[in-house]
């Protein structure tokens, strides 16, 4: 796991931070290699790794299926979650300061989880999603409780236009007193998308204001699409 931690440490975090401040998202290319992507997909068929399976159609969340991991997380996922959090916490704290929100996020992921557990949020939120033809995911936010971290990541485990068509990642931005803006992204296999969980600050003429954002997945036209979502806070249920 030292390899993935070293790769994360060597990323251009100044550029990633700038993109997060400017856009509310950033793409990290080629963080995972093909072998890691294939191993994560293969884990989908191992029931002992998961605490809950959700059939999206049943809850009108979309069309597809996802599974929540249970603790302890697989080593690769644990190291990704822990290492990337420490790089994102300064971004999250800058956002809170800009919006005059009193929340201060701790510098380590372990301390964030301690806050979650004090609030009875004890369930792992890391999940793997699987879509087939006609699958999609409605626009939503991943909060899970009163304690939540405002940034999350998605790891893309299939190659677009080879393994599947359609299935773009969609972000919507709701500016106050304006129409929503749609952002459509198409990361490649092994890429990681960093994006806001629910809102971000935008600078206006009178200072910063809060812009709400949601995310989802457009319809899959053919093939199969897998992603791994890493949310940094734990859930009540």
Number of strands: 15
Overall pLDDT score: 96
Strand order of the largest sheet: 1-11-7-15-5-4-2
Helix segment tally: 5
Helix content: 25-40%
Radius of gyration: 17 Å
Unreliable stretches (pLDDT < 50, length at least 5) are none
Our measurement of the CA-to-CA distance between the termini, rounded to an integer number of angstroms, reads 29 Å
Shape: globular
Sketch the major β-sheet. Answer: 7 strands, antiparallel
Instruction: Work out the strand percent.
Output: 25-35%
Order of helices and strands: HHEHEEEHHEEEEEEEEEEE
Category by helix and strand content: alpha+beta
Organism: Flavobacterium collinsii
InterPro entries: DUF2086 (IPR018655)
Pfam families: Oxygenase-NA
Protein name: Prolyl 4-hydroxylase subunit alpha
Structure description:
This is Prolyl 4-hydroxylase subunit alpha. The protein is of the alpha+beta class and 237 residues long. The protein contains 5 helices and 15 strands. It has helices spanning 2-9, 13-23, 34-42, 75-98, 109-118; strands at 25-28, 50-55, 62-63, 65-69, 127-131, 136-140, 151-156, 164-166, 169-174, 181-185, 192-196, 199-204, 207-217, 220-223, 225-230. Strands 1-11-7-15-5-4-2 form a 7-stranded antiparallel sheet. α1 runs parallel beside α4 (75-98) and α2 (13-23) crosses α4 (75-98). The longest helix is centred in the middle third of the chain and has 24 residues, at 75-98. The model has no long low-confidence stretch (mean pLDDT 96).
